[in-house]
Amino acid sequence: MSRRGFTLVELLVTMLLAAVVGLGVTRLLISQTQFFAGSTGRRDARAVARNAVNIVRDEMRMIEPRGIVSASATQLVVRVPYAMGLYCTGTTATFAPVDSLIWASATYAGFATRDTALNAPYTYVDNTTVPTAGSVTTCTSSPAGITPLTNGRTLSISGLPTLVAGSPVFLFQRVTYELAASTLIPGRTALWRRVTGGVSEEIAVPFENTAIFRFFVSGATTAQDNVPTVLSSITGIEIVLVGESERSASNRQGTPEQAAVRLAIFFRNAVL
Amino acid sequence: MRSSARRPVGFALPMVILTMFVLVGAIAAGFAMISSERSSDDSSMQAQSAAALAETGLQQGLRNRLALGLPAVPPTAGDSVRVTLDGGYADVVTRLMRPGVLGTGVRALYFVRSRGVRTRRFFPGGGDAVSMASAFAAFLPMTMTIPAAVTSLNGINVAGGGNGYISGVDACSGTSTAAVAVPDIPGYDQTSVVKADFLRGTPTIADIGSDPEDAATGIPFDWEDIVYRGAISATLTVPAGGTPSVWPTTAAMASFPTVVVRNGPTGGAALQVGKTHSGKGMLVIFGDLTINGNFTWEGVILVGGRLTLNGTPQIDGAISTGLNAKLDLPIAPNLFENADDLNGASIFQYNSCGVQSALTSLGALRAYQNTWANNFPAY
Question: Global pTM?
Fold first, then answer.
């Protein structure tokens, strides 16, 4: 007669095997969860660093070195051009078309002009009287004889000095970039963008508090930590950011994932 | 009798299924995450590449117009070109904002913008990345110091003359120059009787050195770069040979083309031109030049070798000959035999406007420094 059921030995062996396999599966699950959490954290950290870089890069590339107001390892105050144009006559200048979002979000802080000599330096004038629509015929008629660009803007600018027709003019906003304490994520560092008379925003957070600005000066191939005495000798900025994930990885309680980004941005308008 | 074998009983199959389920889930999650990360990285790289393409297009549009098939001087209506680049392209548009005024120092002003489009993708499914770059630019015509209506490092021997003349008095109301400029040896010689005011200018004969080699150092432009390194971009290149095999049409002459004749600097047959080759512009001849008949030219003629003149031509502008003396080539022992022979009743009239017009096509756009912008609307 055949026996039905399991013997005690069989049951014990089965339980032992099940325990071993279960332990393995459990370890695998935990490992996968930790890997996923770590990867997500690192991705978030990279995204933080990358987003900051993208936002800052477009503005900084248009900086003209004489527009740097002050600089330190954690703060940069600059006059950022947002509309390039040519002088016509009187107080009128005509400007190239500007992306509508950039134009709408810019906060006018003044203008800069220079002579028609191809390598003449710009002179900055701080001015908060917002330019008004100017007469196109002021540009098209003699002596200027300048035809404004389609979809460009012809503006009357308070305080604009008399220049030779065709002299370059640009409008700027005053922007402070700062690596300072975040208000969105207390205890962490954020990259702030503060426009004088305009928005003040954390454009990227969180960063490790070692994030700094470094400086390229004319003639040098590597960035330096020290702020040069002559600010107009700065030809570019190196941003050293260590992006962090907002939450820590599950296997490293209290320690956020990090992703370092080191980016050099050279001023395209820095031909001295 | 029943067999003692029985169906295996255990957890093997459920455990395998569970394990596979967990592993597949983990792998799928990993792939999804990596895919998302790659897509994000790709987007960032695409944007960077588009910016580089836009910048490349802008620089090409400013400095390389001839190679892009565009005229050296942008037309009044403006022009545009698509520049194909590695990984994408750039559409470069040039717009005239103010025409220049010849002789006044008022430069033509342009706005040049480039729309860089990155079409190559590292990761499938994404769109093209677009970036803009723009700058104001001025058109800078080439300038040239003209020592005389006829400047000859070879020396000049006038064997004809007749009713012709060589005049350094500017026909365009500018500052007058010398009639001829030659080195002391072989100098300027008249072996025929010419009328009293055959040479007109201040002075009539300018001394530019003791001999051709010495005078060569005083001619302020780089003939060596022109001959050996293509410093002048030709509108039309004429191969070596006596009678030119190709020549600009009458219509093409209206825009003062630059014609380069590669019959030198040594050994090539002298270029033979006559009335049918008359025209305007910059005529650059690496070897010798022989002018026959009623050839006329408005602009500048640069001759590396020797000029022989047999007819009754008229040159309005300026001509320089013997420029190969600037190439450190051996100088013939008998300099007089190599002097330019002016056998006919020629008219050489200095004309600063003709010179400037000829040089215009050799100018170039140059960006107004520090007027670069990247916020021109890309839509």
Answer: 0.72
